[in-house]
User: Which sequence fits this backbone?
């Protein structure tokens, strides 16, 4: 789960990490009022969307007067912000963060994440801040520093010092960086983050370290023990169909192609997308119906697939283990009768009760093409769609 | 012979009184697995469907001599269940549960350091030695005893590979689902080493996915140490980049992780890589005759 920058900063402030004073606003007038309360200008006016790269798209402005704050905020509300992370359709700005301005002397990069190679939370840092860190990793990997954290000891002071010295800080800044890094680690583990990224951490003209931007992603599987964080979820920032799917425990991701897929299991679902491409077409979605699909869930899965108007055909690929093929067949028949499937439908069933499932489909009177094996299924659906 | 489990393996089920745990305990017993009991705190002394129930894993081990445990405990208690099994000296712990918090697994991995247990999973279908012992949620009948080892992160994609073998009348020594989570107990490399050491395993199918570099590490082992032919499939060529992970996750794996680069590296290491998931068995038969 993602949250907004202003929410991330509130969490970090709670853990004793220095962030600029600021407030989220929903209209221009309150942007101006909050600017005045925050003190003398300049101020930063920052569009709040769940994507990076906002500055380049006009989503971050520096205002010198309170009236300027109001004007910039008004310009941002309702604008569609397109960045390299939003996709071409962009995101509409509904919340704006007004913050005290900072006098930036230097910029740095810090992140924490779980490294699956070491099974440890790992601190990643660089003196190259405020830039695209992927480029740093690609072109100058020697400028990135890593420190794996022992889960019992936590991030130790000596590790934080090591990283701070490598980042090139002088002693007054090292003394600030050590508690910042240690508190960021605490925030990461106590909030069950999957990613915590500070880009940039800045050194101000008077030598202070401040986290100027903050990005926190959370492990969805751990949200059950973080109810306050779960409440920060902004549904307007997420794909409506993915939310809808989630309510039925379906895992759905929209893609660009025209063949809808319904599969059980994430690995087989990815493989099904791959084989559609091998046969010359492309998948419209990833959809994993999970291990215990009921008629209701299969019906819902069809509705979600068909709500995408690009879909010109559907491939169902089920290898029944726990999930019995006759249950899937009943779901397909029930859904087809209930919502009416107008596009070609190819079904490949294998596994428990497969003969019964195939018989049910054949006798349903519905226009369903049965397939034997994945290759046959892919060939048939691509032919049906492409002609 | 086989790896990890065989007809003599005694298994307990943690979370046996849950619907899923009991269903699969019965399924495993029907297959012929020695399912010797289960653990549900507070229900010790009772029994369910003929399985004796114990309050703790320690009690269960003392009473039954079990050396393997399968965990169906919900995510909130999965890490604790794994550590309890490890503490009780269970040699093989298989955690089926999906949705275990990643940081719980980071702690579990640390806890297991220096102890003698092996963990498979979490978020996995389990392990089966066809004809002898089934621990997990896979449909038993698609398997058949024989010479091929199968390993994978995924459940249903493993069934696909197994089915391709069985329908060609080629059986399996052991099939291992290591699980799809970022932090798990056993890697591709660990299982390949076991297959290499098992005299009855003559060839291996390894199924990988995009992300991380576990498949590359396994491929280096194939190139440098493995005497047996290995075929592979990498799922996710069409998966959108960065959808699952934040971009920092892709960086730490050193730019590796996409399907094309994984396939190229595996091929370079002498692995027969299937372009299509429908051709996993074919890819193996290109380099090996049963």
Assistant:
């Amino acid at each position: 789960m993602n949250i907004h920058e202003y929410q991330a900063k509130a969490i970090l402030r709670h853990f004793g990490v220095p962030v600029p004073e600021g407030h989220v606003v929903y209209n221009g007038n309150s942007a101006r009022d909050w600017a005045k309360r925050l003190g003398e200008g300049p101020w930063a006016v920052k569009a709040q969307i769940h994507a990076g790269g906002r500055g380049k798209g006009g989503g971050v402005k520096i205002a010198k007067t309170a009236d300027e704050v109001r004007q910039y905020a008004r310009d941002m509300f309702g604008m569609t912000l397109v960045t390299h992370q939003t996709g071409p359709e962009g995101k509409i700005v509904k919340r704006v963060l007004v913050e005290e301005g900072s006098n930036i002397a230097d910029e740095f990069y810090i992140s924490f994440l779980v490294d699956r190679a070491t099974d440890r939370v790992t601190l990643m840092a660089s003196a190259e801040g405020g830039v695209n860190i992927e480029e740093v990793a690609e072109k100058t990997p020697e400028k990135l520093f890593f420190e794996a954290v022992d889960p019992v000891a936590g991030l130790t002071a000596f590790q934080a010092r090591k990283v701070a010295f490598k980042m090139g800080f002088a002693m007054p800044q090292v003394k600030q960086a050590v508690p910042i890094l240690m508190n960021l680690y605490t925030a990461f583990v106590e909030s069950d983050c999957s990613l915590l990224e500070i880009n940039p951490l800045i050194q101000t003209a008077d030598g202070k370290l401040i986290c100027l931007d903050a990005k926190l992603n959370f492990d969805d599987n751990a949200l059950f023990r973080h109810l306050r964080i779960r409440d920060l979820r902004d549904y307007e920032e997420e794909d409506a169909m993915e939310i809808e799917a989630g309510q039925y425990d379906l895992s759905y991701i929209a893609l660009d192609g025209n063949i809808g897929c319904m599969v059980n299991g994430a690995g087989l679902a990815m493989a099904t997308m791959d084989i559609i491409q091998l046969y010359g077409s492309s998948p419209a979605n990833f959809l994993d119906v999970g291990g215990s699909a009921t008629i209701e869930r299969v019906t819902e899965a069809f509705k979600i697939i068909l709500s995408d108007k690009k879909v010109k055909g559907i491939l169902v690929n089920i290898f029944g283990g726990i999930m019995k093929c006759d249950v899937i067949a009943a779901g397909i028949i029930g859904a087809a009768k209930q919502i009416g499937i107008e596009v070609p439908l190819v079904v490949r069933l294998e596994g428990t009760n497969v003969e019964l499932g195939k018989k049910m489909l054949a006798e349903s009177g519905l226009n369903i093409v049965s397939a034997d094996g994945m290759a046959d299924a892919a060939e048939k659906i691509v032919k049906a769609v492409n002609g | 012979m086989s790896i990890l489990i065989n007809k003599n393996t005694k298994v307990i089920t943690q979370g046996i009184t849950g619907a899923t745990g009991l269903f699969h305990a019965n399924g495993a017993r029907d297959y012929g697995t020695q399912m010797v009991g289960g653990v549900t705190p507070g229900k010790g002394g009772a029994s369910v469907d003929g399985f004796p129930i114990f309050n703790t894993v320690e009690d269960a081990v003392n009473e039954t001599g079990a050396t393997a445990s399968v965990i169906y405990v919900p995510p909130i208690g999965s890490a604790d269940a794994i550590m309890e099994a490890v503490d009780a000296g269970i040699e093989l712990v298989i955690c089926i549960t999906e949705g275990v918090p990643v940081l719980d697994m980071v702690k579990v991995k640390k806890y297991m350091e220096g102890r003698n247990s092996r963990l498979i999973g979490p978020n996995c279908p389990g392990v089966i030695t066809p004809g002898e012992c089934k621990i997990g949620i896979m449909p038993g009948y698609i398997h058949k005893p024989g010479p091929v080892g199968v390993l994978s992160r995924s459940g249903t994609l493993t069934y696909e590979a197994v089915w391709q073998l069985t329908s060609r009348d080629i059986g399996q020594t052991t099939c291992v689902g290591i699980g799809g989570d970022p932090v798990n107990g056993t890697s591709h490399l660990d299982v390949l080493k076991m297959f290499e050491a098992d005299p009855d395993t003559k060839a291996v199918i390894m199924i990988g996915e995009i992300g991380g570099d576990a498949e590359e590490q396994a491929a280096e082992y194939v190139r440098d140490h493995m005497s047996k032919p290995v075929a592979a499939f990498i799922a996710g060529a069409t998966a959108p980049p960065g959808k699952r992970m934040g971009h920092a996750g892709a960086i730490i794996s050193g730019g590796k992780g996409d399907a094309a680069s994984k396939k190229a590296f595996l091929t370079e290491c002498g692995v027969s890589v299937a372009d299509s998931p429908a051709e996993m068995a074919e890819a193996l038969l290109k380099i090996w005759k049963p």
In short: Residues 46 and 221 of chain B are 48 Å apart (CA to CA).
